[in-house]
């Protein structure tokens, strides 16, 4: 936990993510990343100099076999208010639209539903579990498949909805999240999505793993290159 908190707090302070009185929703999918960011945010709240309120929101996308009861129990044990927001995302993406490449549409629908759920509950920020490896993978996906230098930002304000997205795990490596979740026996909820594990992102993840194995430190160098080249990642802009 101390390792995660160290990197999380540095990102929060580098990018001025949290202010006194913020009401923050954690997008709790039940995957390892969202579980870890929820636990870390809960721990951070105990000693962070700025006071903030925390809730958790899970999107029920209509997938068969989803059991959110472990998440209910976890949030109850942490005394964190928890909401399951029912959606028709699975029906729209797979049954109505019959998308052959569903990830982009699904991601857009999930973002919209999560942000709306947070806004409807009077929350002004949404905390997501995107980590260090997600940053590099997204950067590479943009380079290879879109031909542009781009990546999501550590902080994104959505003017239309007047809500702010936070990604406080951008300095946390995925392997550290895996270790934390395993060590603490956190209740991962399996994702039954038919596209899971068969995406361009999985290909890029494998490619970067091989590159880093053959050239130690290449991920960190790519991260540094991304921070220096993508607008909105420069720390000075947030001071």
Radius of gyration: 18 Å
**Separation, N- and C-terminal Cα atoms:** 27 Å
| Percent helix range | 40-55%
Task: Tell me the series of helices and strands, N- to C-terminal.
Answer: HEHEHEHHEHEEHHH
User: What is the number of strand segments?
Assistant: 6
Spans with pLDDT under 50 lasting ≥5 residues?
none
| Order of the strands making up the biggest sheet | 3-2-1-4-6-5
The name of the CATH architecture is 3-Layer(aba) Sandwich
Q: Roughly what fraction of the amino acids lie in strands?
A: 5-15%
Major sheet attributes: 6 strands, mixed
Count helical runs. 9
Whole-number tally of structural domains: 1
What is the CATH third-level topology name? Rossmann fold
Shape: globular
CATH class (first level) name? Alpha Beta
How would you name the CATH homologous superfamily? HUPs
Q: Quick check: average pLDDT?
A: 91
Structural class: alpha/beta
Explain what the structure shows:
By secondary structure, this protein is an alpha/beta fold. It is 49% helix and 13% strand. A six-stranded mixed sheet has the order 3-2-1-4-6-5, with helices on both faces. Helix 1 packs across helix 2 (32-47), helix 6 (132-146) crosses helix 8 (200-214) and helix 6 (132-146) crosses helix 9 (218-229). The longest helix has 18 residues, at 103-120.
Could you provide a short overview of the structure?
Helix content is 49%, strand content 13%. It is an alpha/beta fold.
How are the SSEs ordered, and which strands pair?
Blueprint: H1 2-14, E1 22-27, H2 32-47, E2 52-60, H3 69-78, E3 82-86, H4 89-96, H5 103-120, E4 125-127, H6 132-146, E5 155-158, E6 163-166, H7 174-183, H8 200-214, H9 218-229
Helix pairs in contact: 1-2, 2-7, 6-8, 6-9
């Amino acid at each position: 936990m101390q390792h995660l908190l160290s990197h999380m707090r540095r990102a929060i302070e580098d990018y001025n993510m949290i202010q006194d009185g913020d009401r923050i929703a954690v997008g709790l999918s039940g995957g390892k990343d969202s579980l870890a960011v929820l636990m870390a945010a809960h721990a951070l709240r105990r000693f962070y100099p700025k006071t903030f309120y925390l809730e958790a929101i899970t999107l029920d996308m209509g997938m068969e076999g989803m059991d959110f009861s472990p998440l209910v129990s976890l949030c109850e044990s942490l005394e964190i208010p928890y909401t399951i927001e029912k959606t028709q995302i699975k029906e729209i993406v797979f049954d109505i639209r019959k998308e052959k490449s569903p990830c982009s549409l699904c991601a857009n629908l999930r973002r919209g539903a999560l942000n709306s759920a947070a806004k409807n509950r009077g929350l002004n920020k949404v905390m997501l579990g995107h980590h260090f490896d997600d940053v590099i993978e997204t950067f590479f996906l943009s380079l290879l498949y879109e031909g542009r230098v781009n990546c999501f930002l550590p902080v994104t304000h959505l003017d239309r909805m007047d809500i702010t997205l936070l990604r406080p795990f951008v300095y946390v490596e995925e392997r550290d999240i895996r270790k934390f979740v395993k060590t603490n026996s956190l209740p991962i909820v399996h994702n039954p999505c038919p596209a899971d594990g068969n995406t361009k992102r999985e290909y890029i993840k494998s490619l970067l793993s091989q590159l880093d194995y053959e050239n130690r430190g290449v991920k960190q160098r790519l991260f540094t290159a991304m921070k220096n080249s993508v607008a909105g990642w420069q720390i000075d802009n947030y001071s």
